[in-house]
Structure formats: structure tokens, C-alpha cells
Amino acid sequence: MVGLSLSLLLVVVGLAWRALDDPYVATPGGSAAPTARPGQAALALADLEAAIERGDAAAAAALAPSGDADAADRLRAVVENAEDLGLEGVTLRYVDQDGGTDPTGAWQAVVDVTWQIAGFDPAPARSEVLFALRNVTEPTGDRVAVTAAGAAGGRAPLWLSDDLRVRRTDSRVVAVAGSQRDLARYDRLARLALPVVREVLPEVERRLVVEVPRTAAGLDAALDADEGTYADIAAVTTSPDGEVREAGPLHVLVNPSEMGRLKQVGAQVVMSHEAAHALSDAPMSRAPLWLVEGFADYVALRDVDLPDTEVAAQLADQVQENGLPDDLPGPAELGVGAPYLGASYEAAWLATRELARAGGEDALVELYRSVGAGDDLDAALRDVVGLSRDELVARWRDAMRSLAEQADAA
Asked: What superkingdom heads the lineage (predicted)?
């Protein structure tokens, strides 16, 4: 995909001369092969942007090829999604052609898109998105029609790529590419997650945004990841454009395949975990990953009435099979696709619970915040919790040993 590395001058010049006189390549039969029309594409995108700003779904649908009801419905949904979500600052700027033009005149363009959920996102998201276009000839003249926004093969923000059900309140926005029943389920999970987080972090200012694609592949597309990357992940908290930055937007994106197989308690723990990430700006944290993930699980599990042997069943199995680990889990153990990922998350949770038991919950929160802001972990452990790192690891290993013994006796 051609990125934004093209200079503005080249883009402007390219648009100008192509709009005036589209180049063509003569075929052996003497007819002109279809070519991209950047100038007309830029005009179509400007019209779509204006339709989104006005909330004019009919005007957006008119940008589809005549007679293409599916494309018209997709464009109508884009406007309705934007209105339901409360988007502002939407811009669509043509960047370049992606690939060739097929014999029907269909081609793809890279489009620089900005958007922001008003009142929820502290700053706009910005991403390059593939749009599917087609050169069409109609009684009124030649134009470029839009057939799909968020086309296959690139990043596909959910509001551009699917028809959404949306619930927006003062505290949360939940957008689901599914049924009204799906929306009710995920909205309930989000609603219940908020007080769980605020019980531990009462001062958080962010509000919660949850997006649920239709499929696991839709999650990969929304995250611009290879298909299958997040197949085993129930949810992830990140920026909607893939660029995590200070004071940027953060959304919880759900894998409906994984979340759908969980029972109510498990699904709630996942949503509360991700809400803890989102509301505490965890993706920007400079703390070690075991503390970031363990803290989110501590928040989510704090008031769940389950025995340790059930909460950390995978960890107990690993200890029984392979013995006690020597050190706290690192990025290799906690990364997407890592073997025994569930056990590693449980190990991180157990470490944070030991911190809370040693110094109290307030000390755990202070440690999480100070180390996340860049303070030295070893120094903060001593000053805030009253433990050295070696002492923490020793307590953590003792807790794992006890856990494995309880599981063995059960």
C-alpha cells in the first residue's frame, strides 16, 4: 500500500493533470483500457464526506453505481453509523491508487481518513483505508462511483465497513456489527464493567468505547492484522487507528467468536479487564507487561466469587507439569500467540494480588501508576509496597506452590 510518503505537491499535481486528461494505454484491438481517475475519485470522496457531515444517507447512497443496491446500502450505513456514533471531524482525502484497474473499470484507492467520537475520543483517529471504486458512464456523464469503504486487504474501521447497532450513553458507546440482541449483551457487559473499574480507580476520566465486529476476521481487519492473528484473543484495547499515543483515542475491540463461547462470568471478567486497560490508559503505560496485565485482571477479578483453583486453573496445571517458573512473565510469555498464554496471564494476576496483600490495594494502584509513568520498578516496589523485587518473586512463587497443592488436593 502506498503510504503518506508521497509529497503533497506530487498528489496535487497528479490530481490536476489526471482530472484534466486521464492517460490511457491502447490495447492490441485499439480500444482504451480502463484507467484510474484520481480527480473524479477525489470529488466522489468529497461528496461522501459532505454527506456524512450532513447526515444525508440518501446522498451517500447516490454515490454508488446505478443499480448496485448492495453498494448503496453500504454507503447509506456509513452515514447512519457516523450519526449514531456521534462522529465529528470526518475527512476523506484521496492519496493514491492501490493496484490496477480491472476490465470493468473497478479499482481501489488509498484514502486518508480521520474521525472522532465526539465527547469520548480525546483526539481524532487517522488511518489509511482502502476504498473500492468503479469508473461508470451514465447519461449525466462519466464519474467514479464508490462501491465499498474499508475494502478487503487493508485496515477496515468498523463504522466504514459494516452496518452497526449502536448504543450511546453519557458513560459508554457500544457499537456492534450484529443483531439487537448482540448489542444488548455487549452493552450490558460494558455497563457492568464501569463500576468494577471505578471501584479501584475512582478518579478515571475516560469513558468507554466498545466495538464488536461481525467475525474474528473482522477484528483482524479493524486492527490491520493478518487474518487469524487475534483468533484466540477475546478482546484487545488499542487505538482505533493503530497508533497508540498520549491523549489519543482508545477503544475495546472484541472478538465475537471467542467472547461468544464464554459464559457470563468469564465474558464479564474479559470486558472488565479491557475496560481497566482503556480507562487507565494502559497501552501508554511504561510498566512491565506483567504489571499492566496483572493489574487489569486484579481489577476484573477483585469481587468475583471464585476459588483460586478455578481463577488460575491453567497456571496450576503448568506448575504441576513443569514446576515453578523462576521469574515473572515477560513479553514473550504475554504476547499474542504465545504458548500457555492463559497461564501467563494468571501468573501476572497472582503477582499483583501478592502486591495488594503485601501493601494494600492503594499501594498497588500507586505502584501501577508510578511505574506506568516511568518510575523505576525496583525503587517503587521498595518505597510504595515495602518489598524488593526478589521478595516479590519469592512470595509469588510461594503462592503458585500453594495453588498447585490446592488444585492437586481438589
From this structure: Bacteria
Q: How many residues does the chain have?
A: 410
Hey, what's the cell of 22?
Answer: 486521464
**Sign of the CA dihedral with 346 first, then 347, 352, and 356 last:** positive
What domains sit in the chain, N to C, each tagged with a CATH number? 8-161 (3.10.450.50), 164-279 (3.30.2010), 285-410 (no CATH)
Predicted model pTM: 0.89
- Kindly give the pairing relationship between strand 87-98 and strand 106-117: antiparallel
For residues 134 and 143, give the distance between their C-alpha atoms in angstroms, rounded to a whole number. 8
Per the structure block, which three cell numbers stand in for 191?
455497563
For residue 169, give the nearest of 120, 223, 218 by alpha carbon.
120
Residue with cell 476523506: 92
The per-residue b/e assignment along 315-342, b for 16 or more CB within 10 angstroms, e otherwise, is bbbbbeeeeebeebbeeebbeeebebbe
pLDDT in tens, 96-109: 999 999 999 999 99
The SS3 assignment for 381 reads: helix
Closest of 134, 118, 120 to residue 75, by C-alpha? 134
Cell reading at 188: 450490558
Give dist(CA 277, CA 300) in Å, integer.
10
First to last CA, the chain: 55
Task: Work out the burial of residue 159: count CB atoms within 10 Å of its CB; fewer than 13 is exposed, 13-18 middle, 19 or more buried.
Answer: buried
Q: CA–CA separation, 116 vs 222, rounded Å?
A: 16
- The CA distance from 351 to 169, in Å, is 35
* pLDDT score of 151: 79
**Beta-carbon contacts of residue 103 (< 8 Å; ≥ 6 apart):** 33, 34
Q: 409 — phi, psi (to 5°)?
A: -80, -20
Q: Cα–Cα distance between 25 and 211 in angstroms, integer? A: 44
What is residue 33's DSSP assignment? P
Does the pLDDT at position 9 exceed 70?
Answer: no
